Every structure is written in C-alpha cells, then in structure tokens.
Amino acid sequence: MRLEGKVAVITGGGNGLGRATACRFAREGAKVVVADIVDDLGQETVQLVTEEGGAASFVHCDAVSTSDNHAMAAHALDTYGAIDVLVTAAGVSHAGYKSGDQEASVKWFAKRVDYFENPANELLDLDLDDFRQVMAINLDGTLLAAQACVPAMIESGSGGAIVTIASIAAKHPDAGPIPYVCSKSAVWMLTKKLARVLGRSGIRVNAIGPGFIDTHMTKMIDLIPEERLTQFYANIPMGRKGVPDEIANTALFLASDEASYFTGEILHPDGGFFTE
Ligand SMILES: NC(=O)c1ccc[n+]([C@@H]2O[C@H](COP(=O)([O-])OP(=O)(O)OC[C@H]3O[C@@H](n4cnc5c(N)ncnc54)[C@H](O)[C@@H]3O)[C@@H](O)[C@H]2O)c1
Q1: pTM across the whole model
Q2: CATH topology for 7-97+132-216+242-268?
Q3: Active site (annotated) includes residue 180
Q4: Out of 80, 97, 115, 180, which one is annotated catalytic?
C-alpha cells in the first residue's frame, strides 16, 4: 500500500500506460482521478479500478484545454479533497491519432513505410498544423496539467510528486516521427525545469522515458516489413516490447516515498535500448 491515503490525477488514464498506472496506483491504496478526452475509455478504467475494490472517478479533460485542466484539478479536490500525485500520460504519436482506432493507425503507418527508402520525405511531407497539434497535446498538455494541479500541492504544505511521460524519443531521433521526438525532448526539458522551480515546494518532478511498450500506440510496429522488423527487435537487447504494467511500476516508484530524493530524473524502462 505504497500510496495509501494519496490522491493521484492521471491524464490519458483512459487507455494504455495511463490506464495501467491508474489500476496499479489504486491497488497501492491511492484514490485515482482518471482524466481523458475519450469519455468511454476513461469510464472503462474507472470500472476496472472499482471492480478490483479501488476508488476512482472520471473527469473529461482535453489535455490542450486550460479550462479542462483546471476543471480536472477542481474535480480531484471536490471528490477526494487533495492532489498528491500527477501523472501526465495523455499523448499522441501523430496528428489525428485516436487511441483505439486501429484502422486509422494502420493507414497512417502505411504511409510512413515509404520513409524507410526516402527519409527526406518525412521532412518534406510534414504539415505545420500537424506538427503543432502533436506539440500541443504532448508538451502543452503536460505544462497545463502541472499548472492546474501544483497550486493544491503547494497549499497542502506536504508537497507532491509529478511523473511526466516522455519517451526514449526524448533522446533518440529514430524513435518516432519528427513532431513526436521534438515534443518528447521538450517534455524532458520541461520536467527538469519544473524539478528546479518546484523543489523548494517539496514537489518532485520526474519523467519516464519508456521504450516501445505494447499499447494501441505501437501495435502497428509489427506491420513493418520483416527484414526491418528483425532489425527493430535486434535494437532491443531484451528482444521484446514492454508491457504497460512495467511502466506503471516505474510510475509507482517515482510517485512513492521510495523515490524521495529523486527529482529532475528520467528513468528508461526500455529493455536495454539505450545500451547502444
Ligand atoms: N506505448 C509506447 O511505446 C510509448 C512509449 C513511450 C512513450 N509513450 C507515451 O505514453 C503516453 C501514453 O501512450 P500509450 O502508449 O498509453 O497510448 P494509448 O493510446 O494507449 O493512450 C493514450 C491515452 O491518451 C488519451 N489522449 C489522447 N489525446 C488526448 C488529449 N488531447 N487529451 C486527453 N487525453 C488524450 C487517449 O484517449 C488515451 O486514453 C503518450 O504520451 C505516449 O507518447 C508511449
């Protein structure tokens, strides 16, 4: 019960890493606020938590909306009376990404296969609005959620923990499309900056930089032509994708008192990707 008595707000809690984190945190005693842009997915997470005997509540939140983020924080305070932990798992791999819409993701990915042969086209095809959309959800969304939740952490006098979800793409340009790698690199810098400005308030801010984890976002990787797929897995010493629980466990560590002297750090559960 490492989060007993704590209240955790999780953006993007409707699916993948956010959902696994919500379930894990609830099993450790946290009351969980599940925020997501897709109401059905968020409600499903709440159901999963409550079926296991945990406490969870859903609030609709578009990560890019300032007012939604403030409403999310207000919901946490009204429902559970505090905010001790924030995990920012809302994110997209590309513009127009819809978690759960596999057909759309496959269509998007099919176009990207051309970039293996013609890498310059990735730059030449890039639409500025698409770039901005990914930056907005991944980067602005992280910033806005922190801005909305931090006042309650400061007012409580007992500090708190923020866990951002970056990626190996924060440090490696081959780990995603152009807008994605730029957004994750910026999330990592934002994490370090927040750690510096919030340290005196007793708020620890750390990032997780996952490798390739088996969620909706990475399902299409297995559609890469065979030769390249073999090369893809050869770059991961453990030879497999991770599973969402492996990220939830990392988030649990960073959110808990066990990580009491960690701030401004990034942990890479990546199967050894960064041993290169
Ligand atoms: N899966 C991976 O391999 C991997 C690796 C590194 C980092 N990440 C990051 O982890 C985070 C979660 O991704 P995932 O793999 O769990 O994908 P996912 O699609 O399973 O979950 C993403 C969640 O974010 C929500 N979301 C999307 N746009 C939103 C918005 N505007 N406002 C609020 N919620 C929104 C979705 O509805 C969904 O519930 C993302 O930031 C992603 O970049 C994933």
Answers
A1: 0.98
A2: Rossmann fold (3.40.50)
A3: yes
A4: 180
